[in-house]
Amino acid sequence: MCGIIGYVGNRSAKLEILEGLKMLEYRGYDSAGICCFEKGELKLIKKKGKVDALKYACNEQLKDAHCGIGHTRWATHGNPSDKNAHPFLSENNSVAIVHNGIIENFEMLKGNLQKQGVRFRSETDSEVIAQLLQKSKCESELKKVQELFSKLSGSFAIAILFKGLENQIFAIKKNSPLIVGKSKDGFYLSSDVNALVDKTTEYRIMEENEIVWIDNQDCYVFDANLQAKEITYTPMNLTKEDISIGAFEHYMHKEIMQVPTAIKLTINECEPMVNPYTKLPKEILKDLKHITIIGCGTAFNAGMTAQHYARERDLIVDCVYASEYRYRKFLSQDNEICVFISQSGETADTIEALKIAKSHNIPCIVITNVATSTINKLADYVIPTKAGPEIAVASTKAYNAQITALFALIDYIYCLKNKINCRTCILKDKLYDVVKKLENYSFNNIDELAEILKDTERVFFIGRGVDYATSQEASLKLKEISNIHSESLYTGELKHGTLALIDHSTVVIVISTQKNLFDKTMNSIYEIKARGAKVVLVTQFEVESDAIDMIIKIPCTDQMLMAEISIYPLQMLAYKTAVLKGLDPDKPRNLAKSVTVE
Ligand code: M6R
């Protein structure tokens, strides 16, 4: 949700910032902007649209700049436009800022500033920051920056330039990520590590309520009371290859093809003899009565998949959207743990939900794909997924990695509760079979089905039990990137209302991987066909029926793990449909990868 970049050093600030913005673009792509020092002035260029539009607008300008800040926006307050794009200059052009987050008290602050005669140029919450800094009476810039902590409420990562302090950048952070990168050619600020790969050798994740002050020589870090802090950097371990698109046209395609590897690397991590399982609280897990899984979007759907797996292991799992968990009445349950799932580890709702669970002393396990993320720092216990950087907005390989980690966690808990020697190796062998099947899978019929879907207005995904969880994830994927209206529902629920929407123009994609439910599902297929819909069946079973228009045959593996396989062709289906519709699957309309605001 918005990407921030800053650079000061020997290299061209314009090039470093534009390259950084391109890497951060997945965080938001409504507009982009850059502000650099040029002959002592703050020179600002900003543009509605993607980073390429900004690059074009910059043209030959800012050639000699060595210090600046940039931003790529996902609009919250004020529509996507040139004037609402960041950076913002204060009224007299003496301060420039970029901001990621939401200033919750901006209306009050703006009103006060307007009463003092300050004129605003945008409709955003962020502009107040620049105006406040200009109006501040504090004697030094550092103190002006510190004062923001007491004035702003909400979440913010902010980078700031002050006219007169050429080649210096200030930054502060509260509830939004910000990272400092160090190289022999200068210092960087960035919303994530990806934008620093190949540019820096070391980085440091800013902690809550910190102030950073960088110039081309050094970096200084202070706490909110301006006490200087020691800095320890972490070596950069990502390579350009990890984050490059390679031979693929889109990141989403690359990431779908990486699903088998994501499962393999994650299950290796889940060996009970190694971290992180040894760190889990055995005493609590062995008497566990209730697991609450919390996440958003795809992460929530991974929880839903695991819920069924857990039930087969006699474990009761409740799945709650993080945005709901935050505000529902809290009821304490004995022997409960919470499991938070987040690919990015930066989703605001999930982080806030975690804080609530912690405030009630519930042990919190986090399953996340980004080791450097905010949620990692807050968690009591962390189980990493090893999907590698996921850049496309639509989550694919991270989903498979999340369910892999959840299966391993559930097996581990089951063994502890039943005093069985935990042999994750059994799960590992079964998952290796999944990996092998996925590696050899050829996506039969997917191109043909995508051709049909691209001209379809309404699609339903249905399934029973765990197949319903898969249908939810498949439906989310399709609607998210192809803009086709899609719904998922329990197969048995269709006739309780939604059947009214089924006619010749509808495509119903039925997922059926559970032997005991197959005949029941066939009954529903006949009912759907009788209403004229096109029926597509995703299954590993041999079936012939006039009621089915197309079968997406999937490989067979242990029935409990079929969810790892059944989603795979449907991820590809969403991708192919979006491409056929001429849409950019990596940057779907109105969305952003990392939802760091509420
Ligand atoms: O980074 P997170 O896993 O916390 O993100 C949660 C959702 O925002 C995310 O899964 C979203 O639903 C994806 N775009 C779905 O493809």
Overview in brief:
With 598 residues, this protein is of the alpha/beta class. 35% of the residues lie in helices and 23% in strands. Helix 17 (466-482) links the parallel strand 21 and strand 22 (485-490).
What does this structure look like?
By secondary structure, this protein is α/β, with parallel strands linked by helices. It is 35% helix and 23% strand. The chain has an eight-stranded antiparallel beta sheet with strand order 3-2-4-1-10-9-11-15, covered by helices on one side. Strand 5 (88-89) and strand 6 (95-103) form a beta hairpin. Helix 8 packs parallel to helix 14. The mean pLDDT is 94. Residues 296-299, 342-344, 347, 350, 393-395, 476, 480, 594-595 line the site of 5-amino-5-deoxy-1-O-phosphono-D-mannitol.
The fraction of residues in strands falls at 15-25%
Q: So what's the overall shape? A: globular
- For the termini, the CA-CA separation is 10 Å
The unique ligands bound to this protein are:
5-amino-5-deoxy-1-O-phosphono-D-mannitol
**Overall helicity:** 25-40%
Low-pLDDT ranges: none
Radius of gyration: 25 Å
Tell me about the largest β-sheet: 8 strands, antiparallel
Average pLDDT reading: 94
Spatial ordering of strands, largest sheet: 3-2-4-1-10-9-11-15
- DSSP E strands, number: 25
Helix and strand content put the structural class at alpha/beta
**Number of helices in the DSSP assignment:** 19
Draw up the topology in text.
Blueprint: E1 3-9, H1 13-24, E2 31-38, E3 41-48, H2 51-58, E4 67-73, E5 88-89, E6 95-103, H3 106-115, H4 127-135, H5 141-151, E7 154-162, E8 168-174, E9 179-183, E10 186-190, E11 202-205, E12 210-215, E13 219-222, E14 228-229, E15 234-235, H6 240-243, H7 251-257, H8 259-269, H9 282-286, E16 290-295, H10 297-312, E17 317-321, H11 322-325, E18 336-342, H12 348-359, E19 364-368, H13 374-378, E20 381-384, H14 397-417, H15 424-439, H16 446-453, E21 458-463, H17 466-482, E22 485-490, E23 506-511, H18 518-530, E24 534-539, E25 550-553, H19 562-580
Parallel strand pairs: 16-17, 16-18, 18-19, 19-20, 21-22, 21-23, 23-24, 24-25
Antiparallel strand pairs: 1-4, 1-10, 2-3, 2-4, 5-6, 6-7, 7-8, 8-12, 9-10, 9-11, 11-15, 12-13, 13-14
The protein binds 5-amino-5-deoxy-1-O-phosphono-D-mannitol.
